[in-house]
Amino acid sequence: MGLRLNRQHLGVMFIDMQNSIAGHEQFQGTVAACQQLLNLAHVQHLPVIFVHVRPYEHVVRSMRGESEVLLARRASDPADPKQYDIIDALPVRPEDHVVTKHVRSAFIGTELDHLLRALDINTVIIGGIATNIGVESTVRVGADLGYNFVVAEDACAALSPEAHDASLKYALPFFARITTVSELEFGVE
User: What's the superkingdom here (predicted)?
Assistant: First the structure.
């Protein structure tokens, strides 16, 4: 049985689906699910928001664990000017929105809250990488701001299946409904 959502006040958000993160081979399945979600959003005429991270230098210096690994490059590697671009597999349309964040949560220090309110969105379907970092941080802060979240678990991933599963099992259910892209159903109430 699917999860039926009212299309009114609904938007779709992708976290950190950028070349430097989502371009890793291990995330191909997640990218495919994100493609399905993006297509569904466009068919349903839902607002789409892409969030990418360009961390402040002091944040990079303080990163530990997965955050550090996801954004790391060897000192000998030249900086890629396209590393922060959204991956080609998820083409950004002119009507889509792109938000640049500098820390783990997409709400901290960005225009995201204002954008969601201007678009009259109160419920967000979210996917992205990493489940336990950017996705979870955004959901936690957004829930505290009064937004409802639906996490498309197959459109999310972490560096390890254990980290992904732990976030979905122990943290995110307190702040969001968990489903898969194929279980999403839409209506108007």
Answer: Bacteria
